[in-house]
Amino acid sequence: MSAAATRNPAALELAQRHRFRWWETLPWLAGIAAFFAFPNYLAFGSQLLIMILFALSLDLVLGYAGIVTLGHAAFFGAGAYTVGMLAQHAGWTEPLSGLVAAAIVAGAIGLASGLVVLRTHGLTLLMLTLCTMALLEEAANMASHYTGGFDGMPGLKFAPLLGWFAFDPLYFRSQYVYTLLVLFACFVLVRVLVYSPFGQSLTGIRENLLRMHAVGAPVRARLVIAYGVSAALAGVAGGLFTQTNAFVNLSALGLERAAGVLIVLILGGYGRLYGAFVGALVYLLLEHTLAKAYPTAWQIGVGLMLIVVALYARNGIIGIGDALLRRKGGAR
Amino acid sequence: MEQLLGILLGGFAAGMVLFIVSVGLSVTMGLMGFVNLAHGGFAMLGGYAIVLSMKHWGLPFFPALALGFVAVAALSVVLERLLYARLYRASELDQVLFTIGLVFVMIASVTLAIGPETQTLALPQWLRGQTDLGIIKYRTYSLAMIVAGCVLVVVLWLGFERTRYGARIRAAVDNRRMAQSLGVDVGRLFTAAFAIGSGLAAVGGGLGAEILGLDPQYPLRYLVYFLIVVAVGGLGRVNGVFVAALLIGVLDFVFKIHFPKGGTLFIYALTLVLLLWRPHGLFGKRAG
Question: Is B88 strand, coil or helix?
C-alpha cells in the first residue's frame, strides 16, 4: 500500500473494503445455531438455504453486472433437471458429483445463451431472457420421455453423501448440513469474485457502460462470463432443490420461480453480498406463516411490497438499515 | 382449401384479439420506454367489467364495451398520475418490479372479490352461430373479431397518420427530447395515450374472452404473448403490432393444431431468432 493510501481515510477504506469484518460470521453462526435450536424445521431450513444460493446467483448478474433478467429460473431448472435425469435414467445418484454436473450443464447453457442474448439490452434483453426460459420450459414439457413432462419426476433416490450420510427427504439433518456447506463454498466464491478486479469491472459496466468501453474493458466478455458463473451457481441451487426434495417438475423452470427469486433479492437488497440472506429469510418466513392460511391476501401483500420497494426503498431491507445507521451516525 | 381457410380465419381472430390488447402497450412503451408488465391486468379488469356488467346489470353488448373502456381508462389515468409518473426516470428494474407488484395486486383483488373461476362472455344473439361465407361456414364471433380488428387498425392508422395528435405521438416516439424542445407536452400526450391504450386493452379483454378465456391468472398467462407481439412489432408502431399480432396468432393456431403438445415452443424460438436478427423488432427503428 502506498503512503498516500495509508494517510487518506477514503483511500484506506477503498483499499480495505474486501477485508473480512467480524459481523460477517453472524449469518453462518446463525445457520449453525439453527441446526441445534430448531431441529424440527430443518427441512424448511434447507429450502431457505437453497433460496439464498439462488438469490445470490441472481445478485451477481442483476446487482453487480446490472443485467435485468426475468429468466433466471432457466438455470435453476437446468440444474434441477440435470440432477433429476441423471438419477432417473443413468443411475448417477452420488450427490456431490451430481451438483458438479448441474453446475456444468447450467453454466454451459448460461454461457451459450449469454453469448447471444447479451448483445442486446433494455426491453429486448428482458424479452430474450424470458423467451430462453419459456423455451426450456416447453422443451422439458415436450420431452416427457426423459423429463416426465408435466408431472415431472417424483420419488427420486439419491446415494448417501460420501457413502456415509443417508440422504432421503427423511434425513433432514444431513440435508441441512450438506446444503449449508455447499452454500458456504458458493458464497466464498462469489465474495472473492465481486471484490476481485473482475467484480469491480462488472460494477463499472453497470454504472457506466460507455466509459468502460472507453477505457478498453472487454465489456461483452466480462458480462458473458458473469452470466455463465451466475448460471452455474443457479444450477447448483437447482440441483440441491432436486436432491433435498427428491423430485423435480416444471415448477422449477417457470416464471413464478423467476419472479419469486427476483422478489427475494430485491426485498433484501441487491448489489450487496448479504441481501440474498435477509431477503430469503424474511420472504420465506412470511410465506411459511401467511401463504398457507391466506394465499390471496398473501399475493396482495407481495404485490404491495413490490410496489413500495420500487417506489420508496430501492435498496431493500439492508438499504433501509444502512440509511438508519447513517442517520444515527450523522446526528452524533 | 377449406381447412386452410379455417385455420387462417381462426388464427386471424386470435391475432386480432392480441392486437387490440397489445397496441396500447406498444405505444406507451415506445413513448416513455416504460416497461409496463401490468398491461394485461388492465385487459383483465376490463374483461371482468364487461362480462359482469352484462351478466348482473343486464347491459347490452355495446354499452358494456363502452363501460369497460371508460372505467379502465379512468382507472389507468389515476394510476398513471399517482404511481407510474414517479418511475419514468427510474431504472428498468424498478419499473419491472412495480408493474409485477401491480399485476399481483390486481390478480389477488379479483380473486378475492369475484372468485378464481373462469368467466364466460354472454354473446348477443347476432354473434352466435355460424355465418356462410360462400366457401365455408365459420363462427360468426370469430369473423366479427376479425372485422373489429380491421376497423380498429384503420381508425388507429388514420388517427396516427392524419391527425395532429398522432403526429405528435409519432414525433415523440422517434425522438422524445427533440419533440419536447419543439413544444410537445410529452407528459400529457403520454397520459392520454396510456388511457386510450388501457381502454383498448379492456375492450380486447372483454371481446377476446371467448378466445383467450378470462380468469384472474389472465395477465400472467398472456404476459409473454403481449410482450412478444410488442417486441416483434417494434415499439410504438401500430402497423408493426398489427402484423406481429396476426403472425403470432396464425402461427400459434397452426402449431397448436399440428403439435398439440408444446406447440408454443416454436413461437418462443421464432421470437428469439427474430429479436436477435432485428433487436428493435420488424418495424422498429434500426439504430437506438
Answer: coil
The reply to whether residue A304 touches residue B100, judged by beta carbons under 8 angstroms, is no
Q: Is A208 on the interface with B (CB under 8 A)?
A: no
**Is B166 a member of any domain?**
yes
Residues on chain B touching A263 (C-beta within 8 angstroms): 97
Check if the interface score ipTM surpasses 0.95. Answer: no
**In this structure, how many other beta carbons lie within 10 angstroms of the beta carbon of residue A174?**
18
The C-alpha cell of A161 is what? Answer: 453423501
CB contact under 8 A, A142 and B262: yes
Q: How far apart are CA B14 and CA A42, in angstroms?
A: 49
Q: What is the pTM of this model?
A: 0.86
Q: Tell which residue, A119, A328, A325, A6, has the closest CA to residue B279.
A: A119
| Domain boundary assignment for chain A | 23-331
Residues of A (238-277) whose Cβ lies below 8 Å from B: 255, 259, 262-263, 266
Residue B237 is assigned to a structural domain of this protein: yes
CATH topology of domain A23-331: ABC transporter involved in vitamin B12 uptake, BtuC (1.10.3470)
Residue B213 backbone phi and psi in degrees, to 5: 80, 165
Phi-psi region of B128 (alpha: psi -120 to 50; beta: other; left: phi over 0): beta
Angle, helices A219-245 vs A172-195, to 10°: value is 170
Residue B94: which of A128, A13, A315 has the closest Cα? Answer: A315
Is residue B287 in a domain?
no
Give me the domain span that covers residue B204. 2-277
Instruction: Quick: pLDDT tens for A153-191.
Output: 887 777 777 666 666 666 778 888 889 999 999 999 999
Distance of alpha carbon A159 from its chain centroid, rounded? 26
